Amino acid sequence: MTSYILAAIFAQIALTFAVGLKLLHFRITTHTKNRIPAQMAADEATWNRIYKDGANISDNFETLFEMPVIFYTLCILLVMHGSADIFDAMLAWGFVLLRVGHTVVHCTSNTIMHRFATFISSFVCVFLLALKIALHYFL
Question: What does the pLDDT average to over 46-57?
Answer without folding.
Answer: 86
